[in-house]
Amino acid sequence: MGGVPKKRHTKSSRNQRRMHLYLNSPSLSVCPKCGKAVLPHRVCVSCGYYKGREVINVMEKLDRKERKRKEKEIKDYEKEGAKPAAKDTAEEKK
Questions:
Q1: 78 CB burial (10 A radius; 0-12, 13-18, 19+)
Q2: Dihedral (CA of 51, 54, 56, 60) sign
Q3: What pLDDT score was predicted for residue 33?
Q4: Coil, helix or strand for 8?
Q5: Were both Cys, which of 16, 44, 55, 88 would link to 31 (CB 3.0–4.6 Å)?
Q6: Which residues make Cβ contacts (< 8 Å) with residue 39, sequence separation at least 6?
C-alpha cells in the first residue's frame, strides 16, 4: 500500500506545485504563398506548398466552385503582398 500524507496540503502549496503545468500555444508561421497560419516545417494544408515548391496538389481534389474560390483567395493575397512592398520602395526614394 502507498503512503498516506500526515498533514493537509494547503491550496497555495498545491498551486505552487502545479505552477509549471500549463499548455503553451503553438508557434505558428505564415504561409508565403497563401497567407494562412501554418505549423513550422509542415506543408500548408490550404495551398499545398512547402519551402516555395508545390508538394501536394490541393486543387485537383476540389470541385470547380471551390477551386475558383481558392484561386481567388491566393491571387488576392499575392496582390496584397505586392502592394506594401511597392509602397516601401516609394517611401525610400523620398
A1: middle
A2: positive
A3: 83
A4: coil
A5: 44
A6: 26, 28, 29
